[in-house]
Amino acid sequence: MAKKKEGHVIAQNKKAGHDYFIEETYEAGIVLKGTEIKSMRAGRMNLKDSFARISNGEAFLHNAHISEYEQGNRYNHDPVRARKLLLHKKQINELIGKTQQKGYSIVPLKVYLKNGFAKVLIGLAKGKKNYDKRETLKRQDAKRDIERALRERQKG
């Protein structure tokens, strides 16, 4: 029996790490239509400006763009429709409690395939101020310079 691919990343929200402090992460399933999963497997998904919101005890992913499937004809989907996220009731209640605090939101970090199913890694995020962003960039630059210097010493 062939082993299925583990964790094939389809889309990542690289801006999330820059704009937010990620406090906790949750893995959620996502409810998709047939043409959406086909389009996702082709890598035609974008998480830029997307967010998750909880309403009526259910989690939904908003503004995630999945391009229309080329061979989808009349069965095609709306590219930016709200998609339901599959989480346990306990996790949803936990997220409701934490997002009611000031400054917290739910941000999708990446979408990947796991055992043939589409999964979304969502994070409980707190917004960064501009000075926090600058501090993070300084730290990354310093780390990069140190690694570069170590590589140069090992070569020489």
UniProtKB/TrEMBL annotation:
InterPro entries assigned: SmpB, SsrA-bd_prot, SsrA-bd_prot_CS
Q: Which Pfam families match?
A: SmpB
Q: Name where it mostly resides.
A: cytoplasm
**Where is this chain's protein located in or outside the cell?**
Cytoplasm
Record's GO cellular component, any one?
Answer: cytosol
What Gene Ontology molecular function terms does this protein carry?
RNA binding
* Annotated keywords: Cytoplasm, RNA-binding
The organism's superkingdom is given as Bacteria
Give GO BP annotations, semicolon-separated: trans-translation; trans-translation-dependent protein tagging
Q: Which PANTHER family match?
A: SSRA-BINDING PROTEIN, TMRNA-BINDING COMPONENT OF TRANS-TRANSLATION TAGGING COMPLEX
HAMAP family recorded = SmpB
Entry function = Required for rescue of stalled ribosomes mediated by trans-translation. Binds to transfer-messenger RNA (tmRNA), required for stable association of tmRNA with ribosomes. tmRNA and SmpB together mimic tRNA shape, replacing the anticodon stem-loop with SmpB. tmRNA is encoded by the ssrA gene; the 2 termini fold to resemble tRNA(Ala) and it encodes a 'tag peptide', a short internal open reading frame. During trans-translation Ala-aminoacylated tmRNA acts like a tRNA, entering the A-site of stalled ribosomes, displacing the stalled mRNA.
* Family to which this protein belongs: Belongs to the SmpB family.
The name of this protein is: SsrA-binding protein
**Taxonomically, what lineage is the organism?**
Bacteria, Bacillati, Bacillota, Bacilli, Bacillales
